[in-house]
Structure formats: C-alpha cells, structure tokens
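Need fresh eyes. Consider my entry:
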Amino acid sequence: MTDIGTVAGLGALGFWLFITTIIAAGVWDNIRKREAKHETLRRIVESGQPLDDSLVDKLLSLTDGGKNQRQELKTAGVILLFVALGLTLMGWIMSITLSEEMFGILAGVSALLICISVGLLLTAYLIGRWKREDNAENDHWPEA
C-alpha cells in the first residue's frame, strides 16, 4: 500500500509545477507581445515613414488589445471573492467528513483571498478616480 505522505507530496509537487507553468506561460506571452510591438515599430522606421506620437500610441494600443486595466482588476477581484467563498464552503464540508481543523485552515486561506480581492477592487476604484481627476485637470486651460 502506498504511503499517504508520498501521495500528498506528489500532489503538492504537481500543484506547484502547474502554478509555475502558468506563470512562465504568462511571462512568455508578454515577452512575445512586446517583441511584436518593437518589430512593428522597427519596420516602420526602416521603411522611412515618419513616426509621430499618435501613430506610436495607436500601434502600441493595437497590440495590447485595448485592455481596460480597471475592468481587469474588477474581474480579478470578483473572481477571487467567489474562490474564497468556495474554499470556505469546501472547508466546511471537509470539517464534517474529515477533520474539524480543515474549516479553520481553509477559512484562513479564504480570509487572505478576500483581502487580496478587496485590494484589487480598491485599486480599480482608485485608478478610475485618478483618471477622472487627470481628465478634469486637463479640461481646464489656464487663462493668459
């Protein structure tokens, strides 16, 4: 019969390898996107076309896919809230079937995820507020 510690260790190793793979894939994807931006700009310069700021901004926003940072932060925050809820529920179920300590452990992990989620949602709110303030400042031209 297989030792339960060995199985648990292999499970933990598999989990961390999965997380590492996801992070590495994200980094690789960002590097490829950045290289594509630089390649596009290099080809424009080599062709002799003039570069102005609006063209560069337009090209860079096209390769970004027009992502909205506030929307992404809000999405991540809401997803983490539901993950925390799911972990709490899982801890409650496991405390009934396996061990009463499981609820406390998973409730602690859920509390950490809730804090991260609130931080993401607060950051999204603050970014929106800062953008509104910047736009309000730029709308008022000083009189001579």
Observations:
- The chain has two domains: 1-66, 68-144.
- The radius of gyration is 24 Å.
- Residues 1-66 form one domain.
- The chain is about 85% helix and 0% strand.
